[in-house]
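Task card 7
Instruction: Convert sequence to structure tokens.
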Amino acid sequence: MRYRTIVTVLVIVFTLVAIPVHAQKSPIHKGGWLFGGNGNFNFTNSSGELYEDMNGDGSSMLTFNLSGGYFIINGLNVGILVGYNSQSQGNYSSSDYTFGPRLAYFFQLGNPRLLPFLGAAYVLGGGSTDAGGTTSSDYSKTDLQLFGGVSFMVVRSVGITGAFLYHMDSRKPESGSSTSGNRVGVNIGFLLFL
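Output:
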């Protein structure tokens, strides 16, 4: 009985995953869709001396970044990037959001399991900070993102990505002058090709 159950499950998985995927075109074909997220899907709640402020308050943070797009030609994906970040510690809290267009090109090489890519995004957003009622501020922000990396295809329609990112950020409070800065980072994420 146990053997029959295992065989039945394997046949169902093969039917639902392997056969439709085998019939698909290249994952980066014209007319295909791409959905993904990066390594910033997290919720962190920190405590202990290392993470507490002077009052003994721990911190918490929630962050996510999602993207989606459409392949207008083989390899060229045009889409949107959406992000959200929220942090708090004691009386201090901040949150911000971003959204904007994203463009990425995927290179089809000899190995179908590796899809290198290059891309850029220009996102707009805003947010607010609150320091326990004593000071609070709203701000707007822009971010030009350049990225490149490789997607390792686990199956024909799902990839795990590693990417290098370069951000040119600008942030302007409601009252005050704009400040800018640069960030460099590495992300690990996933991509779903439909």
